[in-house]
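User: Fold both of these, please.

Assistant: Here is the first one.
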Amino acid sequence: MLTDEKKKRIESLTPEEMLYEINLGPRSRFQGDKFAYLKTCYELRISNAQIAANKTIDETNAHQNRDKKIFSKPITWYDKILVKIAVGVIIVILSLAVVWIINHYLNLGL
């Protein structure tokens, strides 16, 4: 059984130091129960770091999805009608311009 002092000593290590000791294996300064506790602490730290990173990614994705909904408003039926009306008006204006140009330059008397 590990004492609280030994547990605190292992827990005070950085993840890099923990990984170094784990990679040393039988040459590590932690042997037996201390080595098992070291591996457990390291795995917990890594999993907590991954959970925190995933949470950050999820929050970022949630903000991006919210922004997409705000800025990409779906086209509704009246938007389509307004587009058709605008295109129709442009066609009529262009047609009248062509007729005016032909009438003006060729003096057809239309």
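And the second sequence with its predicted structure:
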Amino acid sequence: MRPMKILKNKKIIVILFIFSGFFYSFSQYTTITVTIPSSSDAQIRSGSNRNYGNCDYMWVGEYGVYRSLVYFDLSSIPSNATITNAYVTLTAISGSNSGNRDISMYRITSDWVEGGGCDQTGSVNWNSRMSGQNWSSSGGDYSSVISTTTVYGTYYVPYTWDLTQTAQYWHNGIYTNYGVIFIQPNENHYKVFATKEHTNSDYHPFITISYSIPTASPGGIASQLRFWVKANEGVTITSGAVSQWNDQSGNNRHLYQNTSSNRPTRLENGQNFNPTVRFNASNTQFFQRNSNFNIFAGSYSIYLVGYNTSGQRSFITVNESGGSSIASGIHIEANDPNTMRFLHRYPLSTGGGDNLVLSTDLNNSSGNVMSFYRNTNTKHKFILNGIDNYSLSPNSSQFSNNEVTDLTVGQLGSENNRYLNGEIAEIIIYNRDNESDRLRIESYLALKYGISLNNGIGVNYVASNNTTFWNRSTNSGYNHDVFGIGRDDQSALHQKQSQTTESDPFFTIYHLNSDSDPLPTTNELNTSTIPVNRSFLVFGNNDGDITQWFRYPETPVSIISRVERIWKVQKTGTINNVTLTVDTSDLPANTGTLPIYLLVSSTPDMTNAEYVPMTLSGSIWRVAYNFSTNTYISFGYGFVSQPMRHGKAVINGELIPYK
């Protein structure tokens, strides 16, 4: 056979520090071409129950009397690939005459089994697609024609058919891949092609596919990316602890800890179903010490996702090799659980510089997004949860090359104190400052970790191509607790389940292969695939009451009690297989045994809302729903009732007048 050939739920703080040098960029896509041999191929003959699955030939022609089926297994194509070209190749080895014949390729719409016979009774055949299961229509189940190729009277040469669009649809899950069928419907005579059983492997059927895969970077920002670690990739676990944390920027600046007693651990569901690295406030830390870490000359950016629960604790320290961060370098710490501190000291010999204690009332039990950037010697700016409230002029100079080469994570440099008591999910370092890039990276981090930017007022959440997937202005009034699911290949983002990490999450949303699938414990264990890149499903609410039920007779035919809070939905791209769950403990009291409903409306007053019943499994209410953009949802309980002639309805045993 022809082998494949390559041709070519704790709350967390998101901290962003942006501080520019020269600019460079590179392609965010890599193009790969592969050839994949057929996994199954067989001819079928009109009216016959004979199987030809093990023959070294397959016929096509004679007014459709002979048809040939071919299947290619495309599961090796990466899930984030975009197929740019796909061509099926068959080799003609003979025919009934030397004339030219047009042969068309169709997409098969039902599964089939090749069989092991050669002109023997069995399946697949004209009538049955596998043992005990017939085609819907004799001669095979297939869609409209995909492409047509003229096969000439020249033999032992390859002929190709274009399958590009269908292959991409297979890959996206829009169609199920059952292979293709070749038919010559309108002409006499036939052509014969080699199968995978042919003695000469050069004649075997194959498909050639070219696809592009993104070179991922945070927010799709690849320029000057120098360092990137994240807890969901590149983590080496040794004896239950993390011994190495690999750099995803491509620069191989890996973090390591060789002393087993000093190693942190990984929490699989540390933040919004994503893992985090846990530091225990005693002696756990990572080190990265080599001359390759001199990335802080000029302006620079540091993004850090993490949190601290108690005391004055260090997130990261960068200083001269073997030196003390108190004297020099860069130091980022929680001055206490609710205050952020940033230290930039230069020159190294004196330890002078900027010492910023930011009294920002950080909350160590709910998510915060902090942004601080330095632009050479002109400014410092600090942004908390998308609010630009803090800035000053820096006093210290920028670093020179090779002056800060040590990186320590979870400890204050070489000093044995201020060990972090908390978790870190992601660290990103650039050599430049760009405020528009900051928004793209913050959007990536916020959606991934369930953190609401500028909670209550909102910001525009933007994808890697700078398109908006949550619009602050359009969704005015609904910018509380913004969260959602989405896929953005250029950010390596594939968040398939989510809930807000603010104080009252209320419900969880997740994408699954089947509506009946339970909620996986982590995003990594969710085996579904959001089919289209840069697709998002995002929710924000009006901060209404969720502690009690209110009676809202909003339509003349239905009455239901619901919570005051209303969520607005913004949908971008294609996300359909979605399930929503609510834990009974998060609902207001006194529902008794009455059913819970998801309310969906096209208007914010919930007029003419659709009442979708939820089902109870244990303590979890769940419902599958295909959400549309710019719709409004809420939750209610009771019985949907028709009005009586006296203008009242019976709800929960009471006569309720309509308003």
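DSSP finds two helices and 52 strands in the chain.
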